[in-house]
Amino acid sequence: MGNCIVAQSGGPTAVINASLAGVIRANQLNPTFGRVLGGIHGIEGVLAGKLYDLTDVPGSEIEILKQTPSSALGTCRYKLRRGQEEDFVKLVRVMDENDADVMFYIGGNDSMDTVDALSEWACAHGSDKRFVGIPKTVDNDLVPPDHCPGFPSAAKLANMVTHATRLDYDAYTRPEVFVLETMGRDAGWLAASCCLSGDVDLLVLPEVDFDRDWFLQQVQRKMDEKGSCYIVVSEGAHYEDGTYVSAGDSANDGFAHAVLGGAALTLKQMIVDAGVAPRGIVQDLSRAARSSNFAQARIDVAEAYELGVSAHMHAADPDFTAQVVGVKRGSAADGSYNAEYFAGPASEFANFVKNFPAEWIRKDYQGVTDEALAYFAPLVAGEPDIIYGTDGLPKTIVPYNLR
Amino acid sequence: MGNCIVAQSGGPTAVINASLAGVIRANQLNPTFGRVLGGIHGIEGVLAGKLYDLTDVPGSEIEILKQTPSSALGTCRYKLRRGQEEDFVKLVRVMDENDADVMFYIGGNDSMDTVDALSEWACAHGSDKRFVGIPKTVDNDLVPPDHCPGFPSAAKLANMVTHATRLDYDAYTRPEVFVLETMGRDAGWLAASCCLSGDVDLLVLPEVDFDRDWFLQQVQRKMDEKGSCYIVVSEGAHYEDGTYVSAGDSANDGFAHAVLGGAALTLKQMIVDAGVAPRGIVQDLSRAARSSNFAQARIDVAEAYELGVSAHMHAADPDFTAQVVGVKRGSAADGSYNAEYFAGPASEFANFVKNFPAEWIRKDYQGVTDEALAYFAPLVAGEPDIIYGTDGLPKTIVPYNLR
Question: Catalytic one among B101, B116, B139, B141?
Fold first, then answer.
């Protein structure tokens, strides 16, 4: 067989490089492909022929790559669209010029759609080029797998910060609310996972249309009951008409606040303006949640890496294309969590959003059910296993990032 | 001797409980005091007679207390003012009622002033009650010591997030700025420490009056040079007239944005409005920086604990009052960092703010000098040494927090 290309796309995660490391290492263990070429900045770089030879990355660097956050090859938001014939022609030409038979694409929904579209086009045009997807997303919203690499680490960091800031908040006697914001535009998995620490009083998810007055009543109730209210909100929380909560407090009459910022800032201001609490604290996890290598979940690193290995092994089969690898939840003999690996059609990964299940949401913003907690618990378990540098920071390596 | 009281005040840190643990443990090693009584919610709780017996906290719990963030005894913002005679009388009465000879107060500038005022009052009124301070502050702005417990851990977390989010930011090709905000109302130590990771392009400190146009020129230069600009700003950054940057972009003519939020959000909007970059990302460390037990700096835990022990040992001397313990920087035989412990008058800790040194600030917002980096480096060195629970989160214990 010839060479292969591997590239990354979409928002980085704390373990997206572990999947890259898995592809590189698998080819060292069994050189199915002559060379492993890294496409710089996703499909954009591949189209421009920007490739970097990763075949012989030494084992010591591969270990550091596994704990390097962000996308070591760079990322892009460029979406390859069906019908943009010249992109497809060009991409296959770049693969030809580099003697590449297979392209591995590590990404979210959009990237899996790219895998599907490229496979479809190749098939329709008699090309033997093949395309294989490796999933990642802190949003955890791909349908077929139990969960996606990147999510467990983001959930772990979110839980650590939730617990630490809850203790910080509880040290005070003054009446105020605390509002933590997490990523999650369409699905509330990450926000919901914060409930695992047992510190969340109210949870606002994109899966439940936001009802301002009802929400404020719940905040008032918590403040009355215990003098505090710790709220977690997903960035994608929205009103029934689809308007994001972060767009501002539209129901706020009279004194109009132009709020530039996130959902947490808006909720805090809404609560203060309504007189429910005289002040509030805002903590937006923002990018820190998805890039915090110092809080990598053990299972997440292992699974992201093994999905890279699995994709490479599957790709030895010359008929394997338009497929994505993933993890299903199984049980070990003692009932403990066990990852089971599978591969499925890219189209099933691409075109759906897996929302946080309605039956796991407790009403009146009261958090999640025990079933949800049981789902989250094994994903964040275990101690981080990080190699530190003499500077006291986790070691990282980004030799291929060409910004 | 009789009993002692220990209480915590001001903003919590990641290691303020390590100092509390030091006091408790020292009394177990050498029972100078009959009982160690924890004052709940600082001076407020002590005045109300809310005390909790900590004398016999078992060693295993003391270990967990050392890694528990926030103030385990609760905190307060109540400032005891000279002249408020009834507070002084009441406090000494509470100490009498509980047979307490000494009160240890763990806190920042204001708390050290409380130590000073109480000692002064006791001396003037023929009382033999004594008051001893143990410093803490993530702002690092107390004058006599080399640094303050709480700061190294906050700096370590800030550096970890800076490096991780820088890599995340660099993965993209699109033109945008990144703005990270840290705590630091009067002094820029924490923001400056972010430069240690080598990832910061521009640094905005409270120590340099903010010049909007000149700053925007520097951003433009970075964007022109390398297509990216990673900015760190201290929450206390302000214009020459004292107006906080976070108060909004006052120089912004025409289209008025009412910005509710922090300095980072304001800078981002200022840059976008000025057309210097089409978009920007904001990351506010907010409370996470000071409460992140999972990023405790090794030196910080050790020093915070030993300052608690040191304060207790000093207090065996019946003349020891109106004093605060602290750390000076010494050198081991091989030139490496070595903490030297000292005690000094509370008045020297109370009434000054130690700014980040002007000679360590590079002009044009270009970060800090090598001397500054050499100051920061040993404080964040070493791997975290954390005891994790089966849930995958650092173990914590807060049996005395009565919110």
Answer: B139
Instruction: Flag whether pLDDT at B47 surpasses 90.
Output: yes
Touching B: A residues 16-55, CB under 8 Å: 41, 44
Whether B317 sits among the annotated catalytic residues: the reply is: no
B254 Cα to chain A: minimum distance (Å): 16
Asked if the model's pLDDT at residue B193 lies above 70, the reply is yes
Among A29-33, A253-257, B42-46, B107-111, the minimum mean pLDDT is found in A253-257
Reported pTM: 0.94
What is the pLDDT confidence band of residue B402, given thresholds at 50, 70 and 90?
low
Task: Calculate what percentage of chain B has a pLDDT beyond 90.
Answer: 87
| Three-class HEC string of chain B | CCEEEEEECCCCCCCHHHHHHHHHHHHHHCCCCCCEEEECCHHHHHHCCCEEECCCCCHHHHHHHHCCCCCCCCCCCCCCCCCCHHHHHHHHHHHHHCCEEEEEEEECHHHHHHHHHHHHHHHHCCCCCEEEEEECCCCCCCCCCCCCCCHHHHHHHHHHHHHHHHHHHHCCCCCCEEEEEECCCCCCHHHHHHHHHCCCCEEECCCCCECHHHHHHHHHHHHHHHCCEEEEEECCCEECCCCEHHHCCCCCCCCCCCCCCCHHHHHHHHHHHCCCCCCEEEEECCCHHHHCHHHCCHHHHHHHHHHHHHHHHHCCCCCCCCEEEEEEEEECCCCCEEEEEEEEEHHHHHCCCCCCCHHHECCCCCCECHHHHHHHHHHHCCCCCCCECCCCCECCCCCCCCC
> Hey, of A79, A284, A293, A336, which one would you mutate to test binding to chain B, going by the most B CBs within 10 A of its CB?
A284
Is residue A257 predicted with pLDDT exceeding 80? no
pLDDT value of residue B192: 98
Residue B286, token pair as written in the block: 């907010």
Token reading at A124: 């329709």
